[in-house]
Amino acid sequence: MARVVIENLTKTFKGPGGESIRAVDRACLTIEDKELLVLVGPSGCGKTTTLRLIAGLEEITDGTISIDGEEINKVAPKERDIAMVFQNHALYPHMTVFENMAFGLKLRKYGKVEIAQRVREAAEILGLNDCLTRRPEALSGGQRQRVAVGRAIVRKPKVFLFDEPFSNLDAQMRVQMRREICRLHQRLGATMIYVTHDQVEAMTMGDRIAVMKDGVIQQVAAPVKLYDQPDNMFVAGFIGSPPMNFFRGILAQNGSGMVFQAEGEGGFSARLDEETRLAKHTGKKIVLGLRPESIADLSRSSDAAQGWTVEAAVEAIEPMGAETHLHAVTGKHPFIVRLEAGWRAEAGRKIPLVLDMKKAHFFDAATGKELTG
């Protein structure tokens, strides 16, 4: 069993002027036994620092890290029973694949028979049986990264840590390698923490995802919940490709009920479905959030309710093969619409679009937090 508990974890660095910089700010997170948790966020958000704190490669400023109920703050990195795979595979060029994978076990004084057994088991899992006698220079980028993963597998640690291990690979190889990590997780039944800046990678790999910004964990949830129920504008805008559209405006009452009035000249109005929940926010500045798939071409929509339509100018069209991304603007608000493959329109042309307000999200304009009532 390997349950990792992080409580109020803080890491402070000294800046160039002597100022204090919080890379990780009171992070609280529990990674359950056999879970694959993905830590995602933009560059500089503190996710790699968090991973290095777990591994013992950085000194903790405040807070605690525990594995199976035992605090490991003062435990040496080599005694934590953790294996880490880095962005740079860092293989020894003069050693064969077998020797690279066996090196850590030799340092720990394992016997030759057990070393050989562990290396061959890992090679079988990773499809490296035919590469064991080769040196890194004779391997592809994907094979080298597999060797780095294999070097971690042979140790049979309590926890695996992955720090953006595939960011140097091409797009097709990244897709293949993340499938392999998911299969590896299922096969080993191990606890894994995977760091990435790629939200698509996070959505497709994680049992749960922890989203970070400026050293603070914003939300932890299963991928579908993050997408459908974001806690704030940052999570809503970071998770999803294309990202959620945001429209600033106010809530108002008119004869037909509560409406959202977009700010600026030419701003559109849209009637709300959830009037009771948002009634106390009437007259306040808020942000309406709509996913690109929650906006449709009016001429092809079967659910165009009165007051939900907007007129928008086409700015650009991106054919994506299986779908089309429409870049449009209404008033002062640019936004993206996900439409069916083959959709066409001329740039500059104005078209009617319908907003699915049943799938709308509402956020506080000042704090960015979701409005819950």
In short, what is this structure?
The protein has 373 residues and is of the alpha+beta class. The chain has helices spanning 47-55, 97-107, 112-126, 141-153, 171-188, 199-205, 223-228, 233-238, 275-278; strands spanning 4-14, 20-31, 36-40, 62-67, 70-71, 82-85, 159-163, 191-196, 208-213, 216-221, 245-254, 257-262, 269-271, 285-290, 295-297, 309-319, 323-330, 333-340, 350-355, 361-364. The two termini are 41 Å apart.
Compile the SSE list and pairings:
Layout (H helix, E strand, L loop, with lengths): L3 E11 L5 E12 L4 E5 L6 H9 L6 E6 L2 E2 L10 E4 L11 H11 L4 H15 L14 H13 L5 E5 L7 H18 L2 E6 L2 H7 L2 E6 L2 E6 L1 H6 L4 H6 L6 E10 L2 E6 L6 E3 L3 H4 L6 E6 L4 E3 L11 E11 L3 E8 L2 E8 L9 E6 L5 E4 L9
Parallel strand pairs: 3-8, 3-9, 6-7, 7-8
Antiparallel strand pairs: 1-2, 1-4, 4-5, 9-10, 11-12, 11-14, 12-13, 14-20, 15-19, 16-17, 16-19, 17-18
Helix pairs in contact: 2-3, 2-4, 3-4
Tell me the span between the first and last alpha carbons. Answer: 41 Å
CATH superfamily of the largest domain, called what? P-loop containing nucleotide triphosphate hydrolases
Evaluate the radius of gyration: 25 Å
Low-confidence stretches: none
Structural class: alpha+beta
For the sheet with most strands, the description reads: 6 strands, mixed
Word description of this protein:
The protein is α+β, with helices and mostly antiparallel strands and 373 residues long. It folds into two domains: 4-238, Rossmann fold (3-Layer(aba) Sandwich), CATH 3.40.50.300; 245-364, Nucleic acid-binding proteins (OB fold (Dihydrolipoamide Acetyltransferase, E2P), Beta Barrel). It contains nine helices and 20 strands. A six-stranded mixed sheet has the order 6-7-8-3-9-10, sandwiched between helices. A five-stranded antiparallel sheet has the order 13-12-11-14-20. Helix 2 (97-107) packs across helix 3, helix 2 runs parallel beside helix 4 and helix 3 packs across helix 4 (141-153). The radius of gyration is 25 Å and the shape is elongated. The mean pLDDT is 90.
